[in-house]
Please model this.
Amino acid sequence: MQNLNDVIAGIINNIQQQQNKITQSFAKLRNQLTAQHQQMLQMISTAESEMQMQLCHLGNSAQSQITAVLTAQTQQPLTPATPQPTIIQPPALPLMSISHPATTTAPPAHPPYSTVVKQPVAHTSTQQRPKTSVHSQETSTSVKQPVPSTSARQQSKTHTSHHSQRAHPYSATTTNRRQQANPTTVPRPRSQNSAPKMPPVAFISDSTLKAVVEDDATQSTIIANDWERNLLLFRGKTAAEILTMSKDQLLQLKSSGVKKFIISIGTVDLAQLPHETQTPKEAAESVAASISSLSQHLGTDVKICAIIPAPNSHVSQSAYDRFAQQLEQELSQLPLPFVHAGQTMSQHGAETMFLTYDDVIQTCLRDGIHWTYPVTRTIIEKCLAELNIRCPIIRVQDHLSIFRMAVQKAVRDRCCFKCASPDHRIDSCTASSIQCTLCKRSEHNSNVCGFQWLPCRYCGQVGHNRGDITQCPSYLSATLNSVHVS
Model:
């Protein structure tokens, strides 16, 4: 009888072991499928966002063309009633330029979300005005206009239009004829940088928002909107330390016209909970007090959006939940909006299910504490929306590097991006033995070194960037004081 009981117990034990193995295998498979599912949803969401931005850009471009034509038609003098012989000019291929890229390849610096409203086209008589077929800037335009006189032809041969020297979808002769027949034509913008900018926004953060100096999509959006001088990064600092170190710089930003601030602090306070005597509630109250002090320091005419820190691998889920709930309760009593990074991550790319605490750490964090770039873009977009700014964080002018984008923006006049000569372009530069005195590279000289206009990749400040964070004063100070550098 005892032997029979042993056999049965052995069978039950074996079944339980097999059941545990199957359960573990199923859980592992579920995690893998969940990660793949989130990745696919994220790719689809990114593609849809880029497609929507391109459609908005095309619609705005068409609207601007229609507005320009309506303005030109209302100001154009009436022509004789007698029909004039007309000539149809074939569309010319756009002339590509290195230093000034054609507008057909550059997406907008900050395409709006709003829907383009179609405007009615005024009806004109064919005897009063020549017919004009107008398309968007990206397509060629066929113009049927009166033949200019002999003197006008001679002037067009001797006179060179400013627009014909740049990348333009018309030849020089066609451009001159258009200007002579319709002198009120609205000129096209010089470059992408001439488009209207978003309101000034400043970013104050520990290392959680370091995508503003590392991610190409975030950097290009910041440069396109002139925000690159509004970045303050205090890596490895607590909320109280950031409050003390940033007061003077915040007032300088405010005096320069910045009225909107995005603040992301408290992650270091949260990560240090296992090594401190503070409770999660006390840490949250300390972070909220620092945010409140920053708000009072800036004044009531400034709008601030705060970010509640996200989960990280240094704290347990229960400790994080207590911290986040207390901080949310404290911020709700302040007259400022806030974005919950943890909730945003749990919903990131998920349409049918929310991510668990461990899933967020595995899929939304790079090293257990720092946010991935796609997640950071989403959080920044939410913060901008809370500040009444609709600005998608997308790659602007993706045919240019961030370095070249900064140079092209700073150097308004066309010149060689290697030797800085205004007499030729980089593709025909013959200069040799060039070395930049700033970054010590041999691809350009210091006059066209993009690093001098780019924020430092460690502290976010403009002015001391030499392409290497070891030249940053904040980095050197952190290294000498043995502060964790991330």
User: Anything to note?
Assistant: The first strand starts at residue 86 and ends at 88. The chain has two domains: 1-196, 197-395. Residues 2-75 form the longest helix (74 residues).
